[in-house]
Amino acid sequence: MDLVIYNAKIYTVDDNFSMAEAAAIKDGRFVATGTNDEITGKYRSANSLDLEGKFVYPGFIDPHCHFYGYGSSLVNADLAGTNSFEEIIGIITQHHENYPSEWILGRGWDQNRWPVQEFPHRDHLDKVFPDTPVLLTRIDGHAAIANSEALRRAGVDAGSSVSGGEFLKEGKELTGILIDNAIGMVRQHVPAPEYSEKVAALMNAQKNCFAVGLTSVGDAGQDRDIVLLMDSLQKAGDLKMRVYAMLNPTRENYDRFMLRGIYKTDHLNVRSVKLFADGALGSRGAKLIEQYDDDPGNTGLLVETPLNLQRISRLAYEHGYQVNTHCIGDSAVRLILDIYGNILGGKNDRRWRIEHAQVVHPEDFDLFGKYSVIPSVQTTHATSDMKWAGSRIGPRLKGAYAFRELLDQNGWLPNGSDFPVEHINPLYGFYAGVARKDLDGYPEGGFQMENALSREQALRSMTIWAAKANFEEDEKGSIEPGKLADFVVTGEDLMQIDIDGVPQMGIRYTFSGGEKVYRAED
Q1: Of 341, 480, 431, 487, whose CA–CA distance to 19 is shortest?
Q2: How confident is the model over 197-247, as pLDDT tens digits?
Q3: Does 71 fall in a domain?
Q4: Is residue 336 a contact partner of residue 366, using CB atoms and an 8 Å limit?
Q5: What was the pLDDT predicted at 85?
Q6: Contact partners, residue 487, CB within 8 Å, separation at least 6
């Protein structure tokens, strides 16, 4: 045996949610689980680990995040948690002094946290950075602010327009706020990273993910060259993170991957395409059936035409690829359920997903079950949005972030984080799903607790159900013989600790394929 672990409390997360005390591992996979006597009496290894009563779970899986994008963003200004635009200017000024670059980039601002919950104006940036282009992306990635120099370099003026996006104005003047597809008009002028920077982005993302117990990620929307780079680094043994790569809908991706069929290794799985139907609720780009309560006349926007969404979905169907579509608003959810339903026809095992499914019309929940459509959710979105979402959608909030009701449609549900939109720590998602509170413990009784998950459901949603959403339940997601030896060790019991203590829990060890890839400092 390559490794034997014993004296542990192992949550196998198998069909019966059974427990074990020990496990044997060989060639990167679990060979057996059982009691201490059963395993240590039958299996010998020079590499045995006495876990001294610690707790073991399958490696955590984030089925929807932006792995490479997160790694790339680590060198940019971090604007998450800022409480004013003045604070942001201070951060990017200091960041630019420490890390001079041609463009100033940052991400994470959220005007809903500010005393005056309104979008900022480019004038504030122009005063400090008249000659350096600045592009600062909102926390959700669906809005950004650019200064005048960035707009000039992109050739954007008051007469510019783009399908599926918007350049906000005050009168006839641009404010610098870009919504959805308008961001790309500016971002395409940011210099592309060097090869070494791409490698560093992936390696830094991996390091941080292993530290929070993630052993697999679903990278939601990726280009051919980055997928091939991941594959080469994985085959070289440098990138040990397992990646479920959702392809952007580009000709390069179709030619290299989709038209050739599924591409699968132990570390990379390419069999899905990522689409966008609408924007985000926080930037009022989510497509709603009725107008926004706090923006009369606005129902949001579709970032892609229904015809294109249908065309790409049909192409994916013909080549055995999964379709995973971003839908926030109830109109977008309804549109995609209709498109999926027309192609899928009824019950199936295609596992086509609606990513986020944040606002669902009461009449549409049953369609998830009717067409076997999987809602791929992020429980921390609920606790991040709950303080202001009611002002956007009013009474419709009762049909929003309805994770338990969505789970009931198919009997299972994957839960991720969408990082860097949210924090990468999957325990935050576990806590948000069960307690329905933010990290400050608000609200005291939990937010719309009828849609809370049980602890078992929450753990399954970030292990075996997340694996199932990626067609990988036979190789990971539980601790069973024959499966990859990806597992996490904690010093406290996730299933028994006071729920408000979960966010403070730390990871002691993370193993990938039986190899220790993270150990906490003692």
Answers
A1: 480
A2: 999 999 999 999 999 999 999 999 999 999 999 999 999 999 999 999 999
A3: no
A4: no
A5: 94
A6: 56, 57, 58, 59, 215, 479, 510, 511
**Distance between CA atoms of 224 and 69, rounded to whole angstroms?**
14
Answer yes or no: is 179 within a domain.
Answer: yes
pLDDT of 522 higher than 80: no
Report the pLDDT value the prediction gives residue 224, as an integer from 0 to 100. 98
Q: Mind giving me the DSSP string for 336-359?
A: HHHHHHHHH-SS-S---EEEE--B
Q: Is position 130 within any domain?
A: yes
| Beta-sheet pairing, 134-138 with 143-146 | antiparallel
Q: Exposure of 147 by Cβ count < 10 A (0-12 exposed, 13-18 middle, 19+ buried)?
A: buried
The amino acid present at 16, given as its one-letter code, is N
Count of structural domains within the chain: 1
Pull the structure tokens for residue 283: 């930037």
Amino acid present at 80:
A
Residue 222: helix, strand or coil by DSSP?
strand
> SS3 of 475, please?
coil
Say how far apart CA 9 and CA 56 lie, in whole Å: 6
* pLDDT band per the 50, 70, 90 thresholds, residue 343: very high
Domain annotation covers residue 417: no
The whole domain housing 124 covers 103-187
Nearest to 5 by CA among 23, 18, 20, 17: 23
> Where are the alpha helices (H) located in 15-66, listed in sequence order?
36-42
Q: Which residues neighbour 450 within 8 Å (Cβ) at sequence distance 6 or greater?
A: 404
Task: Dig out the tokens for 128 from the structure.
Answer: 């400090």
Average per-residue pLDDT for the chain: 96
For residue 312 the two structure tokens come to: 């790409």
Q: How far is Cα 482 from Cα 311, in angstroms, rounded to an integer?
A: 39
Measured CA to CA, the distance from residue 191 to residue 407 in angstroms comes to: 42
* Span 146-160, pLDDT tens digits: 999 999 999 999 999
Give the angle subtended at the CA of 8 by the CAs of 59 and 510, to the nearest 5°: 30
Q: Report the alpha-carbon distance of residue 9 to residue 432 in Å, rounded.
A: 24
Distance, CA of 36 to CA of 169 (rounded, Å): 67
Looking up residue 120, the CATH number of its domain turns out to be 3.10.310.70
> Looking up tokens 């009369």, which residue turns up?
296
Q: What is the rounded average pLDDT of the residues 372-384?
A: 98
Helix (H) or strand (E) holding 507: strand 507-512
